[in-house]
Amino acid sequence: MQDNVKNITMKLLTYIFLFFSVVPMIAQQNQGQVIASLSRLGIKEKQVGTSILHVDYAMNADSIGQENTYIDLGRLEVGKECCKYYSVFLRQSIGDTRKTSSGGSIIRGKKKGKNSLYWNDIQYADLFFKDGRVTEYVTMPMWMDRYNCQFTEDCPPQQWTLHVETQTILGHKCQKATCHWRGRDYVAWFASDIPVRRGPWRFNGLPGLILKIYDTGHYYTFEAVSIRNTNAPIMLSEFKYPVSTRTKIRKVQRAAQVNFCKAIGGAELDGTPINEPDKPFEQLEKE
């Protein structure tokens, strides 16, 4: 009896998802219509270092001065011995999420940015860098929590080519650099007067802080919107996720974005699989 109730509930939730997935929305190919999970609530944190610099990056902004037009706002916390990159929008949303006074329901904190209801693979991954390696903590969308995982791998610099062109970003003179990385061609602008060899996401190795980077197909753009000196703790969530590999988790992330119903095993009330067409999706790391 309990299994039947569980199956019916799952099918009803799938129909609810389908209803939301056809609601008109402004979307880019790297921003799907997958409902975000609440599995990150209540995870404790520990201090792993002290930051000397915070850099915030707008992801795929329609207007760089308006946060509500970003898909995400990422933050790079730079320390002397380690660095961290994570979503500011997601962290704020988790902080605002709470249970009702009766304790029976959860009120989801509103996440800033466009398409704020939905999950995407960049926003729901925390990156921790130390000793030339990166650990990525991946939180999957609703009904896919069993795939939450973490993996650690080397994080070598991209193979950059420097160019003579310059432009000014946030008052800093930036030089152009290009690279090919994991299936995409990128253009970056770095500030040599800020001697930090890092940037958003996994981009690193230039002789100065990367303030803007985008792929030549313009599916992904990260641009710095603020830089400030700090003396603040670098806090790392104690996720305790199972260990996996980048290849395996990228495959699952892609499956969730391309066809969420298929990825979760969504079915009609009579048990037949839901025939939902694939959605276009451009994954940042194609290789």
What does this structure look like?
The chain is α+β, with helices and mostly antiparallel strands. It has four helices and 15 strands. It has helices spanning 2-21, 88-96, 246-258, 260-264, and strands spanning 34-35, 45-59, 72-79, 82-87, 98-99, 106-107, 118-119, 125-130, 133-138, 149-154, 161-169, 172-181, 184-191, 209-215, 221-237. The strands form three sheets. It has an eleven-stranded antiparallel β-sheet with strand order 10-9-8-4-3-2-15-14-13-12-11. A hairpin with a 2-residue loop joins strand 3 and strand 4. It is globular and about 65 Å long.
Strand content: 35-45%
**Overall outline:** globular
Number of strands: 15
* Helix-strand string: HEEEEHEEEEEEEEEEEHH
Across the major sheet, the strand order is 10-9-8-4-3-2-15-14-13-12-11
**SSE class:** alpha+beta
Helix content percent band: 10-25%
Largest sheet: 11 strands, antiparallel
Count of alpha/pi helices: 4
Distance between the termini: 45 Å
Uncertain ranges: 1-29
Please, what is the average pLDDT? 85
**Rounded radius of gyration (Å):** 20 Å
